[in-house]
């Protein structure tokens, strides 16, 4: 089994770009803690499993671009987020 | 907006954004691509702007960020096209796939998208278009929602 790196790398990069703009500590917005992000990530893993190896890949049984973009969003939020 | 919507909107926009990224990354072999995926990402951002308001939105795009990503999108597209012109003599020639066998293997390896479809530069073009579209559409909505009566 060979891992296809394209969607993993570029999904992470696009997710990372968007995650740098996340600010969940605003007064009127809902505050998301690390536990909330873990819950969202579990939901994202379930969705990625249901999507399957999109688009027509055969390396992993989940949509790798979907998961890596979510990881990029959360990592960038934890590094740069306010 | 109501607290239920405020609780609901950000996780859903997360999922919409990730689906947009997935649409961009599958654009070379499935329906979708840069514009459609970028529009989906912008939909996630717009959902946050509508529910939380521009000032309190958890996903905030500054003017500098919007201009930077727009510029990267446009310049990246043109530069990949110019790479084709430089190496093969044709603007936007697919230097990552090289269907006419006119390029050295080293240049093909540089531009080859790492997946089994042999798509070459098409996924990169999708990514640049996606970057440009998501900030473009978001900028329109952010600008409209900042207008005063």
Folded structure, characterized:
The complex is a heterodimer of chains A (82) and B (149). With 82 residues, chain A is mainly alpha-helical. Chain A has a domain at 32-82. Chain A is 61% helix and 0% strand. Chain A has helices at 5-19, 34-51, 64-80. By secondary structure, chain B is mainly α. The mean pLDDT of chain B is 92. At the A-B interface, helix 1, helix 2 and helix 3 of A face helix 1 and helix 5 of B.
SSE string of chain A: HHH
- Uncertain residue segments of chain B: none
Class based on secondary structure composition and strand pairing of chain A: mainly alpha
Give me the count of strands of chain A. Answer: 0
User: Which bin fits the share of residues in helices of chain B?
Assistant: 55-70%
Q: What oligomeric state best describes the polypeptide chains here? A: heterodimer
Radius of gyration of chain A, CA atoms, in whole angstroms: 14 Å
List keywords for this structure.
A: 82 residues; 3 helices; 61% helix; B: 149 residues; elongated
Write a concise synopsis of the structure shown.
The complex is a heterodimer of chains A (82) and B (149). In chain A, 61% of the residues lie in helices and 0% in strands. Chain A is mainly alpha-helical and 82 residues long.
Secondary structure blueprint with pairings:
The complex is a heterodimer of chains A (82) and B (149).
Chain A: H1 5-19, H2 34-51, H3 64-80
Helix pairs in contact in A: 1-3, 2-3
Chain B: H1 3-25, H2 34-52, H3 63-88, H4 105-111, H5 122-145
Helix pairs in contact in B: 1-2, 2-5, 3-5
